[in-house]
Amino acid sequence: MNTGENKQNNKTGSIKKGSGLVLLGHISFVLISVMASFFYYHFYYYPTYPESHEHGESAFWSSYYIGIFSVVFIWLIQFIYVIPMIIYTLFRKEAEILKGILITSGITFLLGGGICGAMMLQNMFIK
Length: 127
Description:
The protein is an all-alpha fold. The chain has 6 helices and no strands. 87% of the residues lie in helices and 0% in strands. The protein has one domain.
C-alpha cells in the first residue's frame, strides 16, 4: 500500500475551492452594495425630494459614490465574511480550503490596500 496515496485521499477540499469561496463573497458584496446604493436613491431619496432636480442629481452621485467606496475598500470590508469562513474551515479541519481562503484574501488585502494608498497619496500631492 502506498502511504502517499492514503495521505492524498485524506485531504478534503482544494485551494481552488477556498479561492472560489472568497471570490464569490467579493462578487456578492459588490453586487449588494451597488444595489443598496441604487435602491437608496430610487426608493428613499428621490420620492422624498422629487421637485428638486438639482438636489436629486447630487443624491444620485452620492449613492454612486457609496457603491464606488465599497468597491474600493473591499480589501478592508472582506474581513466581515472572510473571518467566519476561516473559523468554519478551522473547525472542520479542511486545511486545503483554508489555504485558498488565506491566499485569496491576502492577495485582495495587499492589492486593494496598495491601490487605495496610492490613490490617497496621489490626492495628497495634487492640489
